[in-house]
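task queued by scheduler; priority normal; single chain, no ligands, no partner chains; default sampling; output format set to structure tokens
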Amino acid sequence: MSTNHNRIKVADLETNQRNKILKTNQNGELEFSDVSDLQLETYNELDCTEEGKALDARQGKVLKEMMDNDYMKLSGNQTFSGVKTTTNTSYPQNAGLVIRNTFTNSNVKNIILSSNSGTGLFCDNTDGTGVFSQTTSGSAGHFYCNGNGKALYVHSLNSPDRTATIIGNTDNDNLYITNKGAGANVKSISTGTGLVFAGNNGYGNTSTISKDGDIKAKSMELGAGTNQKPSLILPNGTLTSNKQNGAIERDENGQLWETHSGVRSKLITTADGLITLAYKSAYAFQTYSSGKITDNKIQATNPIPIGKIGNKSVLKLNAVNDIYCSIWDDGIQPIQSKIEVFLKIENGLFSEETDGNNAFKEIKMIEYSGSNISGVKNYQNMFITDTQNGEILSSDYSYLIYTLQSEIDGELTNKSKTVFLRDISNTRAYGASEGSFSFIVKNTIEYEDATNLNNQNCTSFLINTNYTFYLENITEY
């Protein structure tokens, strides 16, 4: 019979001793030992994760009392690491970690950190405030969305106050928005006012951009235009039913209108064909001469664009000149001072004969001359173009009728004159509609000793200021 198993000595069974326990010795034999020699395993059940370890009744009772008496509330300066979040289905939905506030103290905050599909950071306390804070450099709150969602979504469903408030206390920008894509930096979708800029610490609206795109501001300064883009564009539209003082509008035909004193008036421009050339601003067109020698000063207008003067048309030249002529010291005075206005054809010729004989580039239309020509001068005379027949290519001649107005030593004369128009090569009749014209103003101070060789001439001044200079299109026939 095999004896390879635990055995108990007979002598041990025959003894009658207390506080003995049966255990296996190093040789695999069963023997009785004192209870005091038993080695127990010591461990903290709260730290164990192995099977077979459990809390005893006393530890469970302590934990239950802590939960019943709110001893497990979070205190300040708590650090969490390795928190495994879960998703709940109650409000707020899909929140990964919820720390709820049951106090009415507004200084106590609720924070919800969400799962991937939940709310990014949320305050769920009706009396509290959601807060980001930092005491060093950097961002107090950083919102980042790596998908197609919203990096920041602020929604105040039932609040009677502002949905979001940004308060700054530095010289830097309160709100800085940049967009690396093609979308709008700021887009307001609203059934209310739209976008409002309020001054005076929020009291009184300084400017607004309504939901319909209307802009209202106390003042507006436009940037300089470029060769690619003007500072302001007024597109064609419909005039308002009610006239509004100060309004500038463009109708469906592109015509500009201005309203003041309850009256809407059409703004006349060279594009209308009514005013072909206009200089109507003080000191916008001025010629100035001074010195002790014979002197000529010339000032020219911009050329009138080709096609602005018809082949068969009636126009009127209007000019108001303020001439100042003065002598400043003793000496021999000028023989005369003279102001002349010429019409120049830029791309053709004038001639006094139909065949273009003795052609020239300029015709004189106005002359003021004499020893003293100071004063305000007014010129208003007709300016007529015509051809042999309606078609310039079949006409032997095309002509211009104008009035030469002269005031010499105070005597005013008007003389009607006719010149024929020729092309630049002087080979055919030239229609006025083919020509480009400009007006030239010339100042002349003339001394007998033209170069002041004898150093006897006095100092003289001649200034011609043109306040109004425009060519008015009366009709074409």
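post-processing summary
- The mean pLDDT is 74.
- Residues 244-272 form one domain.
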